[in-house]
Amino acid sequence: MSAYIIVQLEVTDPETYKTYAEQVPPILEKYGGEFVVRGGPMEVLEGDWPFPRAVVIKFPSMEQAKAWHASAEYEGPMALRQSASKGNMIVVEGA
Fold first, then answer.
1. Which domains does the chain have, with CATH numbers?
2. What is the pTM (predicted TM-score) of this model?
3. Nearest 5°: phi and psi at 34?
4. Are 90 and 57 contacting, i.e. CB atoms less than 8 angstroms apart?
């Protein structure tokens, strides 16, 4: 069953975040991940959304999503993202 990583974030260091964004796609590909939403215009319809940007990444399974996040390949880029933004990340199984 597919799984989705959903991220709410605010970029605080655009230059470092750009480096992160350039490094991630080939790592995602190794784990079967693909961007479904990558920034873009957004409107809150209900409730609170504490950050101005959203990212959704689709994976073939929950296991592959978690393996990507915990991988040695993603460790360096993840540190870049964490230093260049603030936000939340969850993984959820698809329907």
1. 3-43+50-93 (3.30.70.100)
2. 0.93
3. -145, 140
4. no
